[in-house]
Amino acid sequence: MEDLLTSATSEEVQNLGTRIAALPVGSFEQHGRFHPLITDTVIACTIAQRIADDYSLFLLPPVTFSCSHEHSDYAGTVSISASTLIAVIRDIQSSLRASAVDRLVLVNGHGGNYVLQNVVQEANASGSQMALFPGRADWDAARADAGMQTNSHEDMHAGELETSILLHATPHLLRPGYDSADWRADDRPFLLMSGMREYTESGVIGFPSLGTAEKGERALASLSGSFKSYMQRLSA
After folding, report:
1. How far apart are CA 113 and CA 95, in angstroms?
2. Which of 107, 153, 208, 230 could form a disulfide with 48 if both were Cys (CB 3.0 to 4.6 A apart)?
3. Can you tell me the distance from the alpha carbon of 69 to that of 73, in angstroms, rounded to the nearest whole number?
4. Are 120 and 132 within 8 A, CB to CB?
5. What is the pTM of this model?
6. What order of strands is seen across the sheet that includes strand 58-59?
């Protein structure tokens, strides 16, 4: 799909003259009956495209498969190991350095990619070379700025936030009926042990009925504003 690809030529990247690349990292996992398996990848690409445009970054195509093991018993979900994801990120970073792009922003669209935090910590042991964006504070600010009614805990999967971004950026990917799929499961003490199935039959935990394109647009604008402080550190 064109929505998920960068179409720049080698010459255009060279003329851009940036040392910073944006790598969307999504997932290929269930998001209930009405949201596509590529939901997290679309969201990561949408955010990466926005900050690449606003800050003149080299936009990379997405890493689509990641760590979605908590969704493994739902049809269509595909995961790779944490060690494989680490190796892919490191190889991409190493390859970029050959063309003098020595700073990398991991734009993460999947909350289960915990391992990316450790990748960034290690990469920055000798100075700021990599960022993980958005962070929790950035997401919280985006929710507030967009006027969303939910928080990140109660609206963790295929809910108000993700639905709003899809409605703004790629509404054709949502199936009719998404607004009837709300599901509350605030108490999830054993999610890492049992996976999502113990807490939701449909695969949704959140409130897609509250999503709007306007909220999605405001959330993206907020995230772009939040990225400014990351850009300042990467450019130092």
Report:
1. 22
2. 107
3. 8
4. yes
5. 0.97
6. 58-59, 20-25, 103-108, 130-133
